[in-house]
Amino acid sequence: MSSAAEQVLAGGAGGYELTKVSRISESLSRLFSDLQEGSSVYTRAASTNVLIPVGSSSAVSDVERLIEDVARLHPSRFLIYGVNNALSAVAAEVSARCHFTSKGEGTSHHVCSELVRMGAPGSQVQALAEAIRANLVSGTPSELLLFDSQVEGELIEVAASMVDSIIFDSSMWARRLAVIEGVLREVKLAVDLQWIALGAWRDQVRAGFDFAQARGLASGLQRFTIVSDGLKDSAAQPKGSASEDRGIPAHCSMAGLLLCGWIAARLQLSLESVKRLSLSGSAEAEGWAVHFQSPSGATVICELISSAENLGVEPRFLAEATSVEPKVRSVRFEGTARGGKGSSFEINRRGLTLEARVEGINSVELSRPIEDETGDGRLRRFFLIGESVANYSAAMGRVLKLCAMAT
């Protein structure tokens, strides 16, 4: 087993066996062979390669706690990798995480994930990438899990071409949009945990438009306003080049932007311009007016407003999401319904409930519970039941274009 002085990545837990990079598979096989004893059966179940770049010792320890939790739902070969300038070359160590599944006829059954930690000095990141590629389980999908928003951009870039999908929370990357934009161009599938967090909002919007009182707004919409928490300035700077520092516009939240992008995508609105929003008489709120054009040629404005009453911060680690991230507080739709009459539909967050009111001759009220999961809770939910990402690319595409126009 590796000692503190021999650790491949600083801050990692014990219980790993040092091995040569060229003998990782052999070492894992021997490790599992040693586990098979008595009445217990241990099954290797690396159905996926999960690549996790880390940027600090605290990230390594937090990642391993996360793996302990999610490996029950998503047994994989987890490859944790990062820069360690105390090393002279690429180094590796292996371990396993096993979970009891069943017991019968005197035999207990366990399903095991494989853990591989790999490190290299900063001058040998490309060699590290080659070692990772050589140790992927062939014939299985590969995922890039972004746990630490301050990880070096190069560690993300070298993995992007190896994976089929990326799992991340966009609220963590509000100040490093270029990194995410680059990865999204490479992968086939993006799973944004912030998109999962907004699921209840999307459901409530759809439910409201199902009522006759609001249905006409779909074609007669003139304005929709999204109010979300402001984003505190962060003293922590990401480890990357200046080109990575492009972020979302001031006085915006990623949650609010994604919801705006989704609504625009569903209504087939084309982005025209982005302007600072003047809020007369309000010193506690600031925002942007996003001008879209509808398929009929009409102008539809999305007002993105951030309130200073509630300020969130950009989470650094996945486990911090929800507890500190800015949240959407309300959405209001205004326009002209059938017959030329004004119509409106509003959703407000009250604690852990979304309360909606559709105005009309017979007003309608409906409520829906909202999950307040941590980032790793969203990840567990995704591995357990999945999530539709059918409209995500169109929504995020509008967000990235909006951000480019506003800066």
SSE diagram, text form:
Blueprint: E1 17-19, H1 24-35, E2 40-44, E3 49-53, H2 57-70, E4 77-83, E5 91-104, E6 107-120, H3 125-134, E7 142-145, H4 153-160, E8 165-168, H5 177-186, E9 189-192, H6 193-197, H7 199-209, H8 212-215, H9 217-220, E10 221-231, H10 254-266, E11 270-277, E12 285-293, E13 299-312, E14 328-336, E15 342-350, E16 353-358, E17 364-369, H11 375-385, H12 392-406
Parallel strand pairs: 2-6, 3-4, 3-7, 4-6, 7-8, 8-9, 10-13
Antiparallel strand pairs: 1-5, 5-6, 10-14, 11-12, 12-13, 14-15, 15-16, 16-17
Helix pairs in contact: 4-5, 10-12
Description:
It is a single chain. With 407 residues, the protein is an alpha/beta fold. It has helices spanning 24-35, 57-70, 125-134, 153-160, 177-186, 193-197, 199-209, 212-215, 217-220, 254-266, 375-385, 392-406, and strands at 17-19, 40-44, 49-53, 77-83, 91-104, 107-120, 142-145, 165-168, 189-192, 221-231, 270-277, 285-293, 299-312, 328-336, 342-350, 353-358, 364-369. The strands form two sheets. Strands 1, 2, 3, 4, 5, 6, 7, 8 and 9 form a nine-stranded mixed beta sheet that branches. Helix 4 packs parallel to helix 5 (177-186). 43% of the residues are buried. Residues 1-5 and 234-243 have low confidence and may be disordered.
Structural class: alpha/beta
Helix content: 25-40%
N-C termini distance: 51 Å
Estimated share of beta-strand residues: 25-35%
